[in-house]
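Retro notes, item 3 of 5
We never archived the inputs for the nickel (II) ion complex last cycle. Fixing that now. Sequence and ligand:
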Amino acid sequence: MILPIYLYGQPALRKPTEDIEPGELDIKTLLSDMQETLTNAEGCGLAAPQIGLSKRLFIVDGTELGEDYPDCVDFRQAFINPEIIEESEETVSYSEGCLSLPGISENVVRPETITIRYQDPDFNWKEETFTGFKARIVQHEYDHLEGHVFTDRISPIRRQFVKGKLTNIAKGKTTARYRYKH
Ligand code: NI
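Structure as it came back at the time:
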């Protein structure tokens, strides 16, 4: 089922998220709905707060990134109850966008490499290190679980520049080509 994606201004995007206990949710159905929603929107990541669910869960899917980041094409997985446990001192700047902020893309500086601990859909704990654009997607989605969106991390000058666009999204003056809620 394709779910509506919550847009900037929705309180769900700023709410603290809670851990998911095994058996608490129908995780398989939820993941399948999130995947369908993400594929339909042609995005590369979707976090639970973006569908109005204040839980620690996000999915990534690099299928759409084939041309720009070929190493991400097979990057398709779910992260449950994740925690970033290490970040490199080296940083890198990439242009980011977000399904919750349609029409905005800005350069964001973040650590180049991160290590994350998380549970897979069977609630087995995993620990993995990602670098480059994979690390970028993971950090962007992880931010959603912390109540952040990527424009929180851009320079004050750029934030001033996108302020009008953000206000328009929050006021419901923006449309997107996928199902959404504002
Ligand atoms: Ni996002």
